[in-house]
Design goal:
With about 80 residues, this protein is mainly β. Helix content is about 5%, strand content about 20%. A hairpin with a 5-residue loop joins β1 and β2. The protein binds zinc ion (ZN).
Length: about 80
Amino acid sequence: MPTYEYACASCGHQFEAVQSFSDAALTECPKCGKEIRKVYSNVGVVFKGSGFYKNDSRANAPTAKPDNPPASASKPIKD
Ligand SMILES: [Zn+2]
């Protein structure tokens, strides 16, 4: 269930409410009864790894050793 954060402009009261998508948005401050507004923040909604893929080359590619010279450099050079 998503968590919505609300803030009251009248008394400054801020609180979080866990609501389902079908629930109506809260409109009244539980403290003073005045109008509140929904605060959009990253709390409760986190998007991870969009377009990024973490590759651990040390674990997935044991044959790729950094101390090995490239294949082209291993060829003997004759003058
Ligand atoms: Zn209030």
